[in-house]
Design goal:
about 400 residues, 4-stranded mixed beta sheet, about 30% helix, 8-stranded antiparallel beta sheet, 3 domains
């Protein structure tokens, strides 16, 4: 951050592989800009940086610049941080960040900080290997399609068996059974519009490994098929016959968030879990909010958000809630600002990669649930049962 600020006119793009890391960097700047300004002003590195090689490398490019420090201070002390990226780095042309699938939840936050710079998803990769690239860099995030590169590994595709093209099993093994191996489709034989789970054989030794990503064939670049990333294959939440996947949860969240717009508020981070301590069990969503409006948000608005989410979930969830009474009212727990930074810190302390960290859409590890619960400031429940019509199985109200 210090190097980027000290050379702010030379920065032409900003970003990180996942938006969580990039937003975390902006929040770091928001908390520590005064220390960074001091370093820019004096041409020194703060004493909290103790690694000699890091200090030596940074000092090679850092020169005292009081005028730049005054500029940074003036921008960071303004009432709003809207557009802070283009204000501090005026020559930045785009934000380089993976924003496909459920990562799209961060688009409003990125637009707010970047003054709606183009969001560019360049690469489709995972810890297993790199898979492909986006050849149309400045397309809309919803239109991103990756062209898989055959020399990266050997790619095969398992036709997706889930309802509405989303796998609805609770947990899938990473190895294929004999029947699934017989169903595999080669890269050259996939069909446009069809959904597949990606299976990869890598140079490092993985053989027919289920990556866990569900892809849809979007078209072709010459003879090479291109794919939209849809979601991860596993179900996020389940109590009874309901199987709520991450795409469905994301759509429900998008619908519910609209209730906050009149108050100039938005959900910046969220996660969920099934609370089995109640009878019947119920879904719990943890929300971290950004509120810029001056009017307090009434409890009834959060209750409407709970109901909106329930109305957006699948037939089986609503049947369990409204008819069988096997599912309790959905609950939203609003947490303190900075809670999801604490969650990230804890996961990194357990060995998660800082650069590849993604906020889990569902938490099952008890210490993570305890951390979230310790920072709850208010809680709200759905005030009534969602609509449910017997015999009418519409999987997702938003489709």
């Amino acid at each position: 951050m210090l190097c980027g600020l000290s050379q702010n006119q030379q920065v032409i793009s900003v970003g990180s592989f996942f938006p969580t890391s990039f937003i975390r960097a902006i929040r770091f700047l928001e908390k520590h800009w005064s220390l960074l300004c001091k370093d820019v002003r004096t041409g020194t590195v703060d004493a909290s940086i103790t690694d000699p090689s890091v200090r030596e490398a940074v000092m090679e490019i850092l020169k005292p610049d009081p005028k730049l420090a005054d500029f940074i201070e003036a921008e960071c002390t303004k009432d709003s941080w809207k557009g802070i990226i283009t204000r501090l780095w005026p020559n930045a042309k785009y934000v380089n960040v993976t924003i496909t699938g459920t990562m799209s939840q961060y688009i409003p936050t990125l637009d707010y900080y970047s003054n709606s710079l183009p969001l560019v998803s360049t690469l489709y990769a995972a810890s297993e290997c790199s898979f492909g690239i986006n050849l149309n860099l400045f397309c809309k995030p919803s239109e991103v399609a990756y062209t898989l590169i055959p020399t990266m590994g050997y790619f095969e595709f398992l036709p997706n068996q889930g309802i509405d093209g989303v796998v609805n099993s609770i947990s899938m093994p990473k190895t294929l059974n004999k029947e699934e191996q017989q169903q595999l489709v080669d890269l050259a034989d996939v069909k446009i519009g069809q959904d597949y789970e990606l299976v990869v054989t890598t140079y490092s030794g993985l053989y027919r490994y289920r990556v866990g990503d569900v892809l849809r064939v979007a078209g072709y670049k010459n003879n090479a098929p291109q794919f939209n990333f849809l979601c991860r294959e596993n179900v996020v939440l389940s109590i009874d016959a309901d199987h709520t996947n991450e795409v469905e949860l994301q759509n429900a969240m998008r619908n519910a968030s609209a209730n906050l717009f009149p108050f100039d508020a938005r959900v910046t981070e969220y996660t969920s879990y099934v609370n089995n301590a109640t009878v019947p069990s119920h879904y719990v969503l943890f929300w971290e909010l950004s509120v810029n409006g001056s009017t307090p948000i009434p409890p009834s608005v959060f209750e409407d958000c709970c109901l909106t989410i329930e109305e957006s979930l699948n037939f089986f969830y609503r049947q369990g809630r409204a008819y069988e009474k096997s599912i309790g009212p959905l609950e939203i727990r609003v947490v303190e600002i900075g809670t999801f930074d604490k969650l990230m810190d804890y996961c990194v302390s357990l060995g998660a990669s800082m650069s590849q960290y993604k906020t889990p859409l569902c938490v099952k590890f008890e210490p993570l649930i305890d951390l979230l619960n310790s920072r709850v400031v208010s809680s709200y429940f759905s005030p009534m049962c969602p609509k449910w019509v017997p015999g009418y199985r519409k999987w997702n109200n938003t489709n």
